[in-house]
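Lab notebook, bench 4. Still working through the backlog of constructs that have no structural model yet. Next entry is a single chain of 163 residues. Request: give me the structure tokens for it.
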Amino acid sequence: MTKPSGYSATQIGLHWIVVLLIVLQYVLHDGISAAWEAVEEGREAASGLLVPMHILGGVLISALALWRLALRARRGTPLPPAGGHPALDLVARVTHGALYLLMLLLPLTGALAWFGGVETAAGIHVVLTALLLVLAGLHVAAALFHHFVMKDGLLNRMGRPAS
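Model written out:
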């Protein structure tokens, strides 16, 4: 399969929708945390929209991640920018793979904790949440490094679709 010159409009749109949903998950974190603490203490979780919104966000993220993976498998991804170091290319592949894995595991562990009452899953969910934050930060830092230091146009690939 030949490598595309860039990402499709669908791939770019899904990327930014997932970014927004992940940011919202962090914003809604306090509501789900307070509800989980109430459940752990044997109290009834406060009603409202925060918990269902957090759950829906997780479901949407995992569904969109699966869609993105299907698009990657069918269409492929562009080659790394020319002039990069093979070690950096490996770090990028591992980081992307880990981000996709986390987009699938976080909703799963959250569901096991919330709906199944599995406390171990809740602990894993907390650790994976922190890992997602670190990897997302690395991802953003790398994109900015490519844009401002390497000036290789990599960041532009998530802004405009390839023809």
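Notes after review: The two ends are 17 Å apart (CA to CA). Helices lie at 9-27, 29-40, 50-75, 86-116, 119-150. Flag for follow-up if needed.
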